């Protein structure tokens, strides 16, 4: 599925701006709204998987819905088609994410959770790496006279993306197996207090960080602003995914041996430094190098955060916990992306605002979040 998603979604901001002529603020609004929709569903689907004590078939339904959304991008003639496709795709993601993550946590012992989620992130990134490579091949084959994405190239990319999307759904149906979920006397009710105070603190810290973590669509647009061609942007994304893939498993394995919190703190500090680099960058080459290093943050923080959640919440409530975690990431994508869009366009004509401003904002919040995370003392890991 990630082969398919990366081919389409990473070129989608360029299709919106280069082909459909959509303003940057509207790109942020489309991305933020789609993620918000996904987030609201993640809360319910995570709890529902705890209630059913089953994970697999909710994940299958979510992946299938995302696959069905792909043709809308092919037929898109205006931004409303794109927004609709993004909405359906994110509905699918909202249904599948928490049950899938809970299935991973249920399938592994506490001593290897970091490795398991690191492996998941590595596989989750190897797919996009191949997806970007395929998209790059399409561009090389079809587009020779423009540095900007053309209508024909984008629609061809969408067509090619259909095969891996539907193959992913079939693979999950045939290959994945449900794991018996830890049971309790009563079916779990949705309750933040039932997840415990450590989880609440962790979510608040993540929320503060995410408020400055706008959609990566802005990084793609910054790369174009600084002079990277379409093939250069796709090459940049390919490099990022390779770094992300390589870092994920070692970082996850390391978090099994030392405090997971330390891995997250370092990851957030790496993010802050790289975002400051984006803010002061002047050339496309600089953006490319920084975006490659950006994969270090992803490899360190994302899988480790999910392993930590399994450490600090009861086993029978993991679906709910992963749903809330993913919801926070998604819900805050709307304000963070809208803020980034306003800062980028100068919110009118305010002096000092422009393409660099969203990245200064993100770096500042990341520094503060990392300090607060370093001061927090999480409980010992659960089984």
Task: Summarize this structure as a short list of keywords or feature phrases.
383 residues, Growth Hormone, Chain: A, 16 helices
Report on this structure:
This protein is mainly α and 383 residues long. It has one domain (2-177, 191-375): Growth Hormone, Chain: A (Up-down Bundle), CATH 1.20.1250.20. 78% of the residues lie in helices and 0% in strands. It has 16 helices and no strands. α3 (24-52) runs antiparallel to α14 (318-331) and α6 (113-142) runs antiparallel to α13 (284-312). The longest helix has 30 residues, at 113-142. It is globular and about 60 Å long. The protein starts with a helix and ends in an 8-residue tail after the last helix.
In CATH, the homologous superfamily goes by the name MFS general substrate transporter like domains
Q: Major sheet: size, sense and barrel closure?
A: none
**Tally of individual helices:** 16
Outline, from the CA principal axes? Answer: globular
Q: CATH architecture, please?
A: Up-down Bundle
Question: Which helices and strands, and how do they pair?
Answer:
Elements: H1 2-9, H2 12-19, H3 24-52, H4 56-74, H5 79-106, H6 113-142, H7 151-175, H8 192-195, H9 197-210, H10 217-225, H11 230-257, H12 260-280, H13 284-312, H14 318-331, H15 333-345, H16 357-375
Helix pairs in contact: 1-6, 1-7, 3-5, 3-14, 3-15, 4-5, 4-7, 5-14, 6-7, 6-11, 6-13, 9-14, 9-16, 10-13, 11-12, 11-13, 12-13, 12-16, 15-16
């Amino acid at each position: 599925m990630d082969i398919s998603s990366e081919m389409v979604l990473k070129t989608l901001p360029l299709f919106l701006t280069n082909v459909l002529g959509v303003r940057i603020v509207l790109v942020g609004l489309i991305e933020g709204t789609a993620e918000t929709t996904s987030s609201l569903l993640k809360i319910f689907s995570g709890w529902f998987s705890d209630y059913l004590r089953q994970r697999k078939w909710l994940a299958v339904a979510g992946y299938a819905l995302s696959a069905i959304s792909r043709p809308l991008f092919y037929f898109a003639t205006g931004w409303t088609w794109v927004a609709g496709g993004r909405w359906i795709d994110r509905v699918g993601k909202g249904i599948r994410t928490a049950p899938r993550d809970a299935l991973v946590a249920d399938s592994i012992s506490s001593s290897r959770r970091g490795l398991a989620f690191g492996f998941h992130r590595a596989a989750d990134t190897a797919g996009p790496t191949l997806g970007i490579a395929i998209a790059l091949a399409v561009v090389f084959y079809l587009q020779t006279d423009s540095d900007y994405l053309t209508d024909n190239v984008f629609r061809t990319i969408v067509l090619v993306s259909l095969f891996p999307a539907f193959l992913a759904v079939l693979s999950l149906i045939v290959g994945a197996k449900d794991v018996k979920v830890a049971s309790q006397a009563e079916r779990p009710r949705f309750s933040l207090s039932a997840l415990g105070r450590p989880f609440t603190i962790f979510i608040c810290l993540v929320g503060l960080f995410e408020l400055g973590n706008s959609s990566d669509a802005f990084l793609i647009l910054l790369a174009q602003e600084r002079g990277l061609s379409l093939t250069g942007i796709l090459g940049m994304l390919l490099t990022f995914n390779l770094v992300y893939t390589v870092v994920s498993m070692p970082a996850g394995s390391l978090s099994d041996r030392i405090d997971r919190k330390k891995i997250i703190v370092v990851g957030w500090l790496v993010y802050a430094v790289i975002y400051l680099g984006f803010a002061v960058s002047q050339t496309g080459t600089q953006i490319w190098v920084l975006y490659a290093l950006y994969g270090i943050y992803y490899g360190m923080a994302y899988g480790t955060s999910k392993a930590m959640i399994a450490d600090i919440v009861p086993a029978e409530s993991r679906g709910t916990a992963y749903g809330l975690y993913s919801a926070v990431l998604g819900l805050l994508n709307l304000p963070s992306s809208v803020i980034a869009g306003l800062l980028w366009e100068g919110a009118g004509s305010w002096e000092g605002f422009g393409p660099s401003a969203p990245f200064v904002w993100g770096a500042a919040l990341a520094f503060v979040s990392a300090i607060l995370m370093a001061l927090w003392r999480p409980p010992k890991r659960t089984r």
